[in-house]
Amino acid sequence: MGEALLARLREATGKRDPFAGGSACGDELRLSSRRLTRPFNRHGHRSYTEGAPQEEGTLFASKALTEAYVIHHRQRHIETALRIAAKAPAVMVAPPVFTDEPNFLTLRDTVIRMMRAQGLTVFDPMATLFGAGNPIPPDFMMEDGQHGTAEYGLRVLGALGEARLIE
Questions:
Q1: Is 25 within a domain?
Q2: Is 106 within a domain?
Q3: DSSP 140
Q4: Beta 45-47 vs 122-123: how paired, if at all?
Q5: Exposure of 35 by Cβ count < 10 A (0-12 exposed, 13-18 middle, 19+ buried)?
Q6: Going along 58-154, which residue ranges are E strands?
Q7: Beta-carbon neighbour count of residue 95 at 10 Å?
Q8: Count of domains forming the chain
Q9: pLDDT digits over 146-158, tens only?
């Protein structure tokens, strides 16, 4: 976790360890499609998905390679989340889906699966609010195409409450 962020959290909570004391924490998985997917796509790689169309010239990446790529780029983030979850109830919120680009979807699902396998509570609002595999409706998308609107955020909070993950 960045020192500047930790300092702001300490100031805001008035605690040396802002994660101690049983307060619920939430975080959005840091899964920027630009930061994780673009390098994977750079040379035409495509994570292999059973039943997906196979275009000529595509370099398919195995499930093992895809998982190794995610471990390399996201394990440090998962370990930070595990340290937080060891001190306070924590819920990791999966980011909204803005694209049906296959690598983004596979990499996102891989991160979610890996976090759950390591014991983290992960809430995927897409499955609850819009149906698994569906992108976020345009009404809930900011103009930048990478973030949800305030209304989207309110719906996510409502769904977290209904799932009894927050009070």
A1: yes
A2: yes
A3: G
A4: unpaired
A5: exposed
A6: 59-61, 90-93, 122-123
A7: 22
A8: 1
A9: 888 999 989 998 9
What are the pLDDT digits (tens) for 16-69? 776 665 555 555 555 555 578 888 888 778 887 766 667 777 788 888 988 999
- Dihedral pair phi/psi, residue 39, rounded to 5°: -65, -35
Question: Residue 50: which CATH number?
Answer: 3.40.50
Sign of the four-CA dihedral 88, 121, 93, 75: positive
Name the residue range of residue 35's domain.
3-162
Q: What are phi and psi of 120, to 5 degrees?
A: -85, 145
Cβ burial of 64 (10 Å; 0-12, 13-18, 19+) is exposed
Q: How far apart are CA 26 and CA 166, in angstroms?
A: 9
Is 167 part of any domain?
Answer: no
pLDDT 10s digits, 67-97: 999 889 889 889 988 988 898 888 998 888 8
With b meaning 16 or more CB within 10 Å and e meaning fewer, what string describes 8-21?
Answer: eeeeeeeeeebbee
Report whether pLDDT(11) > 70.
yes
